């Protein structure tokens, strides 16, 4: 039953992504206001605009989920909007489907496909394995970009950790990471 729910959920995500890719974002004026409030510097907004329409939709949904749950910490909201920014390096939807499938059925194969000798710029990677490496290293790359755009230091730490398996909550940063992951998984 749990596998069926996951299949239904992933199918829903796929069709929402396809809709965003085909038709763009809705409520652009309201979204611009939210984006400019959370990402006030031009370099920060430029990072957000690098993302595909689907990744922008996802990021806005994560931020909206957090805000509706009562979280208004600017660093947390910056991380919500920019946690997947490095996927803008190139991760076609078919690769995203393959990544989800490999995570579920063959994580060691995914790890092998994701290997990158130079994680900072993904140099020397063949065209066919590049999207897998982007998946594996997008938190590190995105955090570096967020730092260069002068995002909040906590936002940078949350971005770099957003795919970390959190075993326990020891401090406020861990709590915010857990909340970010919760909102990310819902959207």
How would you describe what is shown here?
- By secondary structure, this protein is mainly α.
- The protein has one domain.
- Helix content is 70%, strand content 0%.
- The protein is built from ten helices and no strands.
- Helix 1 crosses helix 4, helix 4 (53-68) crosses helix 10 and helix 5 (74-82) crosses helix 9.
- The longest helix is centred in the N-terminal third of the chain and has 22 residues, at 2-23.
Q: What is the molecular shape? A: globular
Instruction: Determine the structural class based on helices, strands and strand pairing.
Output: mainly alpha
Note the total helix count. 10
What's the oligomerization state? single chain
How many DSSP E strands? 0
Spell the H/E element sequence: HHHHHHHHHH
How many strands, which pairing sense, and closed or not: the largest β-sheet? Answer: none
Could you list the spans in which at least 5 consecutive residues all have pLDDT below 50?
20-24
Number of domains: 1
Topology of helices and strands:
Blueprint: H1 2-23, H2 28-38, H3 42-50, H4 53-68, H5 74-82, H6 93-105, H7 107-113, H8 130-148, H9 153-161, H10 172-186
Helix pairs in contact: 1-4, 4-5, 4-10, 5-9, 6-7, 8-9, 9-10
